[in-house]
Structure formats: C-alpha cells, structure tokens
Amino acid sequence: MEDIKDITKTETTIEVADVKPDREWRKDDASLMNNELPEEEKDWFADARPRKVMPAWAPIEKFFNWARAHSLWILAFGTGCGAIELRPLVTARYDISRLGMQPRPTPRQASVFMIGGYVSIKTLKRIVRSYEQMQGPKFVVAVCSCAINGGMYWDSYNTVKRIDQYIPVDVYVTGCMPRPEAVMAGFSKLKELILAGKAEGQNLYAEKFDWYKTNQKQVIKDWNMPDYNW
Amino acid sequence: MADLYPPIVNGKSVFDLNSGKYLKMWQGPQHPGVTGNMSLELVISGDQVVECKTHVGYLHRGFEKLMERRRYINCFPIVCRICVPEPDTNEYLFCTAMEELMGVEIPERAKWLRTLNLELSRLASFLMWTGGQSGAFGHGTVAQWALAHRDYVLDLFEEWTGARIYHM
Amino acid sequence: MKELYNKLTLQFNLSEFMQQRPNLAFVTVEKRQLVNLLTCLRDIHHYTHLVFVTAVDWLENNQFQLTYMLHNYENHTDLGIRILLDRGNPVMETIHHLWEQGRVYQRELHEMFGIDFPGSPGVEEPMILEGWQGPPVMRRDFDTKKYSLETYDHRARDTREPEQHMKEKLYPED
Questions:
Q1: B56 contact residues in C (CB cutoff 8 A)
Q2: What are phi and psi of A216, to 5 degrees?
Q3: Which of A56, B46, B67, C166 has the greatest CB tally within 10 Å of its CB?
Q4: Burial letters for B138-153: b for 16+ Cβ neighbours within 10 Å, e otherwise?
Q5: Are residues C78 and C60 in contact, defined by beta-carbon separation less than 8 angstroms?
Q6: Hey, what CATH topology would domain A73-219 get?
Q7: H or E element at residue C6
Q8: Is residue C141 less than 8 Å (CB to CB) from chain A?
Q9: Given an 8 Å threshold on Cβ–Cβ distance, is B69 in contact with C128?
Q10: pTM of the shown model
Q11: Burial class (CB within 10 angstroms; exposed 0-12, middle 13-18, buried 19+) of B52
Q12: B64 C-beta neighbours (distance < 10 Å), count
C-alpha cells in the first residue's frame, strides 16, 4: 500500500495570497443568536451579519445601475390583497415584460419584493425569511395603504401597522387596490431611484440590523429560525 | 397501489420518512403555484400526494372583532375584503342581512342591478381561478387568456363605482 | 317545521322555537341533551349535513351561546340548535364522532373563545394565530384597539372631520 501517495502531504501547493481562512471573515458577529451552536450545526445557519455594499467606481456603477434597473425580477409571493393586482400585470394589457420584469419562484433569483397590502404576524415571519434569503441588490415595493399605516385594519390585533419598521421599504404605492398603472408607476419610480443610486434599502438593513431584529422579535413571538436567514 | 399508503395507527398514518419512499415537503406560502397565501404540508411518493395537511391563518385580520367596533354602515368596506377575488358576494350577503333586519324591500331596478353585478362577479372569479390554476400547472397561455378576459369584466365594474375590484 | 318541533318536544326538553323564514328555524335545548338530539336528527329525521358551529358571547348574562346548524337535503330546510354554556367554565361535549368536520369548528372555537371540547383530536393546536399568548381573542372583554395601540407602533394620522375642516379652513370668521 506504499505506492498510493498521500496527496495531502505532497509539495505541489498553490500560492494563493490574501485568501483568509473561512472563520476569520466573521469575527464581528458574536451577537447573532445562533453563534453558540455545535460545529456540525453551524453549517445550517448564517454566521455572519449582512454587510453593507459600497458602490464601485463611478462609471462602472452607472452601468451597473442601468443594468439593475432594467431587469428587475419580482418574487412571486402573494402576501395579501395586493396579489390580485400582480396577476394582471403579467398579461398582455399592462405588460411588465417590456420593462424587463418577470415573476420568479425562488427568492434566490429575485430582486424586487412586492409586499401586497396587509401583513399579519404569521406572514411577517415568512416575509422576513424570504427577504433575507434574497441575494444581491434587492428592493422592496409596498403597495396598498395597509402597508403604509395600517389602513383599514388599524385596530386589529393580528396585522402589523408600519411595515417600515420590520423591513426597509423603498417605494410606497397608495390605493386600496391601486390600479395596475399605479403599480407600474411605482416601479418606474423605483427605477429612477436605482438609476440615481439612491435605492439603499439593503444597506439600511445592514446598518440598522439590530433595530430591525428587535422590532421583529417583539412582534413574532415564537422565533424558531436563525437570526439571519441567509 | 395498495402499498402506497402506510399503515394507520391511532387514526393517523405513520410514515417512515427514512425509507426513501416518501418525501415530506411544504408547499409553503411563498410559492407561485399556491393561489393566495396558505401552506400545505405534503407527503408525496413520486408523483402522488399521499397526505396533505393545510395550514391557514396567514390572512387573519380579525374581522368580527373589527366589526364590533363599527356601526352597521361602517362595516361595508370590511365585509368587502373578506374574499379577495370575489368581493361582491360578501357585500350582497351583508346587504340582505341588514335589509331583513330592517324590514326594508329594495326597488326592482336595484334587484336587476344586483343580479347583474353578482353574475359578472361570478364570471370574473371563475376566470381568475382558471387562469391561476393553469398557470400553476404550466399552461401559460390559458392563464394569459383568462386574465385578459377578466380585465374586460373589471372594466365594466369600473363604470359601476370607479374601483376595479373593491366596490366599497 | 312546527310538526318536527312538536314531535321532538315529546322526547327532549326543548324551549323557545323561533321560525325565522319558511325554511329556517331555531330551537334551544339543554346542554346535556344535545348529543342525543343531534344523533336523533341525523339518523331519523334526515338532517345529515352539519353546516357550522359558532358561538356568541353574552357578556351581560355571563354565558356563551353555541349554535349548531343542520341542513336537510330532502326538504331543504335548516335547523339551528342552540345551547347555553357557563362563561366561567366553558366545557362542552364533542361531536366529532358524528361529523368529522366538527373537529375543525371545535378547534377554531377553542382558539377564539376558549371553549374546551375534551376528547376531540387536535383541539389544542393553534390553527389561525401563531405564538399567541394572550386571552382568547373573540371574547367581548378583549379590547383590540387598546392591544393594537400598545403593541404596534402607529404612524401619526391626519384625520379630517368635515365639520371641523369647514370651520377652520373655509369659514374661519364664523
């Protein structure tokens, strides 16, 4: 058995400078609740907080913003009443395919999260989970007046009044069922914000992560998921 | 086919999830095939669903509690929004309940208009169901046609009060 | 439906028969005779469909009033059967052995009103609210506006009463 070489001990090592070992990136996050788990379970939970994304060099960033604004993919999550105005948007009359948007089934492939209408506590837990699983540049558009200040259900025990305190929202669209044209106007406003470089919901979430988490945990009483669902 | 379903113990089926024959998955609220916001806890074997348990409550707003705090006429917007794709049926129910309590008979033109409204709303709701369900299966064309025709019905509703879906 | 009532009064202790429409009637019965009455109606008088089970909270009389609605497919009539429960200790027998859908209604009543149905499978699992630690929600002494103002943060509102708006803005000199 001596002629089978032990390849871990050969000398053909590749010189890769500046690659830190895995755990060293994540020294700043002792505050995540899932940090004291045993080593086997740590793979299942995110062990780093969300990071702020700084814009790149200006002309390249302009190109990136142009690319992001013109291919927004919507997450197909019919949260509340607003789901019923998401469907006519995809048909040929109020075509959003010409703006580059299409509904995607998983959060890993989506950029825009359209929160439709009222949000009950049970749905809020899933919204937080889906939002944190979205990648890269992500934006949130909240339609209907129930997301703005509670709307008609302002004295209900199960709906959340200001969605702004639980997830960062970029654009609000008013209406109690806004027309599809109004929702498209909201998306156009989001495009303007992205092109100007001002759609900073993701960075706001990374900065004020503790504040958002405290608010969420105050309302969602049975928290049985990781602190950051990446 | 008989060995697809496992033995029943204490009124519940016992699934051996480690045997590789069953898969337990959640068709959760975030799913393009679920029309609306609900979740199904499925146990499937290949292509066949063996057990399904529903989980509801994602849309609970406490309507009865809200209606306790409002007067009768303030309850109309609330009753409208109980069922999202077909709101006119709930409004009709509430209206007739109030009329029966008050002992009031509505004029004939109102009855005709009400019948028209309910029939159109039924059409719109069926078209929405056809479109949504076939979109979930993958028949994208049926979804586009059904939802496009539903838009014509909603245009008629817009001449009614000004709002496409919720008339109150 | 008066004949049915006359027939049933011989066997059970019924009170307060109210015929609201030609095909809808309500009758009140004692709590301990309810399951027998429902079995009799289901097997003998063809009332085979349980439509719903709801509860009304009579805070002034300190009672819960449950209503079981049954439907007859042969002559298309509805019969609602009412019982009164004590509000301090609301416990009722379960009817899930007669109709399976009774389980779901009893689960909902347990969560919303706090009425206990011992023996019904799965009646303790929360169905609609998740992680709720307060009192049962639908009771009349649960103030939902106060709970909402305390738990959730509200944006400052700008309500506009028409009378006040007119007095201030349009006709200030009056």
A1: 127-128
A2: -65, -40
A3: B67
A4: eeeeebbbbbebbbeb
A5: no
A6: Rossmann fold (3.40.50)
A7: helix C2-9
A8: no
A9: no
A10: 0.84
A11: exposed
A12: 11
Q: Following DSSP, what letter does each residue of A64-92 receive, concatenated?
A: HHHHHHT--EEE----SGGGGGTHHHHSS
Q: Are A128 and A167 within 8 A, CB to CB? A: yes
Q: First CA to last CA across chain A, in angstroms?
A: 45
For residue range B29-82, list pLDDT tens digits in order. 888 777 778 888 888 888 888 888 888 888 888 888 898 888 888 888 899 888
Interface membership of C125 toward A (CB under 8 Å): no
Half-sphere exposure of B102 (CA within 13 A, CB side): 11
Packing angle, helices A180-196 and A58-69, rounded to 10: 170
The answer to whether residues C24 and C47 touch, using CB atoms and an 8 Å cutoff, is no
Across A129-143, A152-166, A179-193, C152-166, least confident range: C152-166
List the single range of C54-58, C73-77, C120-124 with lowest mean pLDDT. C120-124
> Whose CA is closest to B53, among B13, B20, B85?
B13
Rounded to whole angstroms, how far apart are CA atoms C68 and C54?
A: 7
C:77-136 residues touching chain B, CB 8 A cutoff: 121, 127-130
* Domain limits, chain C: 2-154
The ipTM, to two decimals, is: 0.83
Neighboring chain A residues of B62 at a CB cutoff of 8 Å: 153, 156-158
**Chain B residues lying within 8 Å of C137, measured CB to CB:** 62, 65
CATH class in words for C2-154: alpha beta
A neighbours by CB contacts (3+ pairs under 8 Å): B, C
| C151 contacts on B by Cβ (under 8 Å) | none
B25 touches chain C (CB under 8 A): no
Whether C127 and C102 have beta carbons less than 8 Å apart is answered as no
For chain B, the residues whose C-beta falls within 8 A of a C-beta of chain A are 28-32, 34-37, 57-62, 65-66, 69, 77-78, 81, 84-85, 128, 131-132, 144, 147-148, 150-151, 163-166
Residue A102 has pLDDT above 60, yes or no: yes
| Rounded Cα–Cα distance for residues A90 and B121 (Å) | 21
For chain A, domain boundaries: 73-219
> What is the residue-wise DSSP string for chain B?
-GGGSPPEETTEE---GGGSS-EEEEE-SS-TTSSSS-EEEEEEETTEEEEEEEE--TT---HHHHHHTS-TGGGHHHHHTTSSS--HHHHHHHHHHHHHHHT----HHHHHHHHHHHHHHHHHHHHHHHHHHHHHHT-HHHHHHHHHHHHHHHHHHHTTTS-SS---
> Considering chain A, what is the average pLDDT of its residues?
81
